[in-house]
Every structure is written in structure tokens, then in C-alpha cells.
Sema domain-containing protein (Limosa lapponica baueri), 658 residues
Amino acid sequence: MDHLFQLESHKFERGRGRCPFDPSSSFTSILIGGELFTGLYSDYWGRDAALFRTMNRMAHLRTEPDSERLLKEPKFVGSYMIPDNEDHDDNKVYFFFTEKALEAETSTHAIYTRVGRVCANDMGGQRMLVNKWSTFLKTRLVCSVPGRNGIDTHFDELEDVFLLQTRDNKNPVIFGLFNTTSNIFRGYAVCVYHMASVRAAFNGPYAHKEGPEYHWALYEGKVPYPRPGSCASKVNGGLYTTTKDYPDEAVHFARSHPLMYQPIKPVHKRPILVKTDGKYNLKQIAVDRVEAEDGQYDVLFIGTDHRRGYDPEFEKCNTINHIAQGCLN
Amino acid sequence: MDHLFQLESHKFERGRGRCPFDPSSSFTSILIGGELFTGLYSDYWGRDAALFRTMNRMAHLRTEPDSERLLKEPKFVGSYMIPDNEDHDDNKVYFFFTEKALEAETSTHAIYTRVGRVCANDMGGQRMLVNKWSTFLKTRLVCSVPGRNGIDTHFDELEDVFLLQTRDNKNPVIFGLFNTTSNIFRGYAVCVYHMASVRAAFNGPYAHKEGPEYHWALYEGKVPYPRPGSCASKVNGGLYTTTKDYPDEAVHFARSHPLMYQPIKPVHKRPILVKTDGKYNLKQIAVDRVEAEDGQYDVLFIGTDHRRGYDPEFEKCNTINHIAQGCLN
């Protein structure tokens, strides 16, 4: 498939919600059926972070502005459409990002990695959440090493995410490359997630906060119908053909419960790779599944910010030891 | 002062509350005016952790059994008597320990370092807390490096504590040697605390938890008189000569509010020393204040668990490089 781009110099379009003001600010986008889904800071001051859907036939949609419950100083890392089943109306768009954790202890700051999710065909609410996502949910994506006394070492800063497609397009394998949030201890980990774990978290209980003095707890009350976060599709009973027809109660619940209670845990409940030698900053990941004589292997390609000619570490090693190999490994 | 110990083979005393059943279990003790103050696990199974006062004329006292709010799987590190003023009835005993943090996020485990404090002349309550400490308070002792985005790197596992005595016996300088609680990132930090910060935390607001769904918050209600944690002394008005006369309300409040809201922060709000090279496990600290020509220095002596003849790291370095010095530094 050859794509040929050319500049339509006579045509101008408003870029708000489609690309960030500051080209260096964090940004993710995906084009699905002519609709552009983006995660970006849409204003000049870099304060209004939101998930957008713009472009085509469908109504422009975004997350509510100034809602720290939805997105708190996020860094957008990736976005993908992953179908749940054969019904296209049930298609969901997943956003991978980090943000300040609202559910962490009040007196401390923390950054968590999140998976956020919307229905691709979301039309917003009718009386509430007008032109806002009415199906947005998010949860924590955990990448941690189990430790003594139940104290896990967390890698909370998502650097990159890669979807390894399988024969079943509903079940790609998700690879996350994570960094620590500490400026003293630097280390990287790669965690792998199955879609079954992702779906289980979103189909699980909601997190609930009764008031400012309360902590985020398991919501044990009645969940309205249609279940907040589910799409207007035949698979979901076909009772509703658009989220605009969802009962107020369901839209209101979705608005106040964007966070799921259960995080998404990686396969084997630990990373498949941990690097703490501090040699390189790991930035990007790609994965290739190969068949070998003795079975199937996933080959990880991990990119660093290392430029060979300019690495002072490399230079130093080379000068002192005259054994470059020893320093590079 | 030469102390001569000899075994009184004809005399037997009950050791409960004076020394642990298991000699390898964590233990701290200090003898003050014939009274033995201890922190230990007093039972055979190593479950009943408590702070005790035993021995002499005064009533035997302990922390309430089975109260996770007071001590949750503590590791006792040190104990010291530090006077607040000239009134001996106001003398306080400080216990340094680590424990599972009750105020951390509910879904995660965490270990915090604590300073606990009791009045040396505590007599317990009359109707409530009979033969239990009625003046016990504790707070978190923080040793952390400030980081990006307000995310600090914490050293939460206290290994050793040293009190550097100054001319003013009310104001020793406290040196803490800390380890991380992670099994992936190992590192050590030394933090210094002034008694003014310690007293400010104990004279500050109490932490309060309204119920299981709530988080620990700042207590803003009325504090009873005498202020819970204060001693029966002339300095405190002289209205009460024993904690047994304290009003029920004050004893009840002390029982339900053992935790202070504000942690104790180190001098300069950061460690004076951070070691992350992973060469040694640092176990003990002693400090000597010396006068040099260009001013006063605090010399840190830090003990490791390294035994020269048996260190495999040392062996390996020695064999490969023939430069032992390079490996030891």
C-alpha cells in the first residue's frame, strides 16, 4: 500500500484537537474509518489535555475540560483500535498514557500508567456530557516486580507500547516498555499483557470515592444499565443505537466513575525483562514473533537514545580500557 | 565507669517483656533509673510485638496487644531517653522502628520508619488503658530525595540510628541510616534530624481516620486536655501528678489517635549521603563531631556486613584485575 501525501496549499483547516500547539508536547493519534482519534494538549499554554475525535461525519467529541478525574497532566504514549467482537459498533479505542495518580495517598505524588478506553461510535450524552465521551473508562496498567513483605517495585512511567498482532485481531499481545519515576533509581522493565486481562479490568468493579476524606474504594452498589463503558451495539442487546439514548442515570454514573478498581497485571505478574544497569535510556520497543526449530520466539527490539558518535560513556570506556566491547555490554 | 557483671545462678526472674523469646528477633532496650524500657516480640510465636516498661518500683506497662494501629509487624532499631526540659517528670523515651504503614494506600503494602514516644513516668489509665501506655504517640520519619514532578525517592527501611550528644542534652542530633524497601533497587541514605523537628511533629496535628472507607486525614476537631501524649508533670500545669488521673476523654482520644499527621523531615529536606553503587550492605552508623582548623566536622563511621576474608565480590575483583583497591572503593 503506497501512500502519496501532497500539500493542499489552497485548503485550510482548524487544527485544534487534531495536533498539539507545541510540536514537542506529548501526542498520540489514530485514524479509524476516516475519524481521527487523538490524545493531546489542545491549547497554547499546554494545560488542556484531552482525548478527541474529530474530522469526519461524526460529531466532534472530547473529554470534559478541567476534569482532573479524567486526565491529570497526562503523557500520551499510544492509541489503538482493538475490536471486541465481529460487531463493528462494539469497536473500542484504547489510549495508553501516564498521569498523576488521583487514587494515590493524598500526601504523596505518584505517576501511574493508564489504559483509557472509549467506544469508537460514542456520540456523547443527550442532556449531560453533550459532545463529550460518554463511554470513557480507565484503569492502572501495572508493571512491577514482586518483593519481600509484599512490597513490589513498580515501573510506573510508560515509555512506549507495542501491539503484536496475532491471527486473531481481537487479541493482539501488548508489550509495554516502562521506566521508573525515581530520579535516584533508574531502571527499565518490559511487561506483557493479554487482552483478556485488559477486558477483565474494564468488565470488573468500578472505583468509587464517596467524598474528599474518603479513599478510592471498591464500588459495591447497583450498576446502571447499559453498563457504563459499554457501546451502543447489537452485541449489548441492541436496545440503544446511540449513546445519546442512554438513560441519564447511566451517563451520570459513567461521568462520576471513570476509574476501574482493578489494575491490569502483566503475564506471570512480573516483567519479562528488567534492566537496572543504567547504561542506556530505553525509549522504544518493537516485537517480532518468529518460528524457530525449537518453537516460537518473541524477539524484542529496544531502541535507546544513544547516538554512537556522541556517547560520553562509550568514549570514556574506550579511552581507558581500549576494550569498547566490555563497556557496551 | 567499669561495670562488672556476674551471673546470679541462684536467682530466677521472669523474662517476659524484658528480652525476646527468639534471640535473633528484633529488640531494643534502654535502662532509665532502674526501669527497663524495651521494644520486642514477647511471645514464642513472634506475634506479640510491644513496647514494655518492666523491672522496678513502677507498674509494668505495655502497648495494647493485637492493636495494629500501634505496632504492625515492627522491626525495633533503637531507643533513647531525651529530656524535654529540666522537669524529670516530663522525660520522654523515644523508640525508633519500622513497621507496615497503616496509612498507605489500601491496595499496596509499604514499610515506614517511625519514631514512637512515651512519657517515662506513664502510669497507664484508670478505667481505660489500665497498665497500658496512655501517652504513646508515633509519626513517620522521612528520609527521601526530592524528585521531578514532586515524586520523591524514599528510603523507608531504618537500619540504624545514632544520637550525637551535644552540650545541650535536650537536643542531641539524630543520624539515621536507611535502606530501600525494594528488592530491585538497593541503596542507602543517611539523614539527620533535629529535635526541634521531632517535637514539632508530636506537638502538631493528629492523624484521624473516620472509618474503614476513609483515608487518614488531618484531625481538625477539638483536642482534649491534657493534650494526649503530654506527661503528668509540673511543666504541663501540674494539674495531674499521674496519667491515671487524666480524664477519660483524654485517654480515649490518645487510644484512638496514636499517629501524628505530620512526618519528621530531615535537615535540608534531603539525605546528607546517598549510596546506590550496591557494593556493600550498610548496617551500622556512629558519628564523631570533631573540631578542625577550618571548623566543625561530623565524621560518619558506617559499618557494613562485609567480612574481608569472605567477600566473593572482593575475591572476584582481586582475581580478575589484580587491583583490590579499585574494587573496594
Residues 312-329 of chain B have pLDDT under 50 and may be disordered. The first strand of chain B starts at residue 27 and ends at 32. The radius of gyration of chain B is 22 Å.
